[in-house]
Amino acid sequence: MSFSLTGVHEECGVFGIYDPEGRSVASDIYYGLSALQHRGQESCGIAVTDTSGPAGNVCYDRGLGLVNEVFHETNLNALKGNLGIGHVRYSTTGSSVLANTQPLVMKYLKGTLCLAHNGNLINAAELRHELELGGTLFRTTIDSEVIACLVAKNRVTSSSAEEAVKKTCASIRGAYALTVTSSRKLIGVRDPYGLKPLCLGKKGSGWILASESCAITSVGGEFIRDIEPGEIVIISHDGVHSDYLEEKPSQRAHCIFEYIYFARLDSTIDGVSVYDARLRGGRFLAREYPVEADLIAGVPDSGLISAYGYAQESGIPFGFIFHKNSYVGRTFIKPTQKERENAVKIKLSVIPAAVRGKRIVLVDDSIVRGTTIKNLIRDLKKAGALEVHVRISSPPFLHPCFFGTDVPGTSSLIAHEHSVEDIRREIGADSLGYMTVSALSELSGGLPICRACFTGSYPMTVPDHDISMDLEQST
Question: Which ranges of the sequence are coiled-coil (predicted)?
Answer without folding.
Answer: none
